[in-house]
Structures are given as structure tokens and as C-alpha cells.
Amino acid sequence: MSSLRYFYTCWNGDEMVHDYQIIYEKLYRYYGPQGWWPAKTAFEMMIGAILVQNTSWRNVEKALSNLKPFLSPAKIEKLSFDELAELIRPSGFFKMKAQRIKAFMEWLKAYEYDLSQIKMKDCNELRDELLAVKGIGSETADVILLYAFDQPVFVADAYARRIFFRLGINLPKSYDSFRLEVERALPRDLAMFNEFHALLVEHAKEHCKKAPICDGCPLASICDRRLG
Fold first, then answer.
1. Nearest Cα residue to 148 out of 46, 38, 33, 40
2. Positive or negative CA dihedral for 81, 84, 89, 94?
3. What backbone torsions phi and psi does residue 12 show, to the nearest 5 degrees?
4. Separation between Cα atoms, residue 91 and residue 87, nearest integer Å
5. Per-residue exposure over 106-132, b if at least 16 CB sit within 10 Å of its own CB, e if not
6. pLDDT tens per residue across span 25-68
């Protein structure tokens, strides 16, 4: 039995449960609180979540800087498609992302841009609504649920999958199965889910890169180092 299996799995009846909380605690002790999401308002956060699709955060920051005078629902709504696309050009795929932002704004407008009203909805119902918006996929929906609408959901992105696979955890293939496995194993603690996603992103950038840097890694003592 590997060190990972010893520390990170237990049996609950016939079901094997991974102790994701210990992974979280090790990362939190090493990196500290991350203060995510990097945005001044929930609305800016949601726009950033769309802009960051298929690009780096550095490019998103440039686009958000261009958008700064318009970062309110009423002002974004008044921008023409071409005006919006030009402002977000630094984020890449700018015409496609302009379409997605416009579609998202239509959904938001149905709630009169009242985020407090949206937060009152059932999480699963709200997630289904977000996924029905053109261009909003599972990862973007979950990031918005977590950081804008205060729902304790796990963002099962590629960074999380890479890290957990290397630790030795055999993950479900689908995004939702992976997400639900982690959510079932953790308490419904908003602050924990908020930090966990940010910590996994930070760890993937600092240590668990495509070519991993194992020296000094806070998870090294319990990692199976699977690279396949």
C-alpha cells in the first residue's frame, strides 16, 4: 500500500472515500489564504470568469483594464457588440467571448441584475440555468457559483485533476462525477471550497506543473508521482 493510500483513503461501508480535506490542509498550511477571486465586485468576477476561458489571467487583466469604465451591468448592456469585442481583444477569442458576455447579460437581466435574488435560488437549479447560457460550461458555471453566488461547490478543473492523479487517486472520467466525489467527501464549508480551488491553482503553477517540481512540494511525502 502506497503512502498516499495509507493517508488518504478510508472505507465507508462498501465505498472508498479519499480524504481530500487533508490535501486541502497541507496546501493551506504551505501557501496560506489566497484571497480569491481577484475582483473588486461580484459582477467583475463573473465577467473575468468568462474572459479567462482559454487564456492566461495576465491577458484577462488587460481586458478588464480596458473594461474598467464599463464594469457595471447597465454600462456593459449599452455597449454594442463591436465595442465590447474591441475592449476585450487582449483576452483572445474576443468575438466569441463578446457573444458569451452578451448571452450572460441576457440571463442576468432576467433577474434585474439583482445578485441577492439569484443567491436565494437552489444551487442545482442555478447551475442548470448557468449551463443553459451559451458559452457557459461546467467549470465556468462552478467558478461563478462559488465566487459570485456563495455556493460551496468544487471546481473540478484540469489543475485539480492533474494534482489528484499524481497523488495516486483514481478519478472519475467525467467532470461532474469528479466534482461530486470531492463535494461528498468534504463538509459544505464555503470558505474551504473558496480556498481549495485557489490553492490547487497555485500549487499547479508552483510545483505540480506539466513538468513537476517535486523538491519542496508540500504534498511530496504522500505523492505517488504518477506522471502518465
1. 46
2. negative
3. -120, 90
4. 9
5. eebeeeebebeebeeeeeeebbebbee
6. 999 999 999 999 989 999 999 999 999 999 999 999 999 999 99
The pLDDT of residue 227: 85
Task: Return d(Cα 47, Cα 37) in angstroms, integer.
Answer: 12
The DSSP line for 8-72 is HEEEETTEEEE-HHHHHHHHHHHH-----S--SSHHHHHHHHHHTTTS-HHHHHHHHHHHGGG-S
Higher pLDDT pick, 192 / 222: 192
In the chain, % helix, strand, coil (3-state, to 5) comes to 60, 5, 35
d(CA 186, CA 184): 6
Beta strands in the chain (DSSP E): 9-12, 15-18
Q: Cα 224 vs. chain centroid, distance in angstroms? A: 25
Four-residue CA torsion sign, 9, 166, 195, 7: positive
pLDDT in tens, 126-143: 999 999 999 999 999 999
How many residues are there in the chain? 228
For helices 57-67 and 42-51, the axis angle rounded to 10 degrees is 130
C-alpha cell at 119: 443567491
Q: What is the mean pLDDT of residues 199-227?
A: 95
First and final C-alpha spacing in the chain = 19
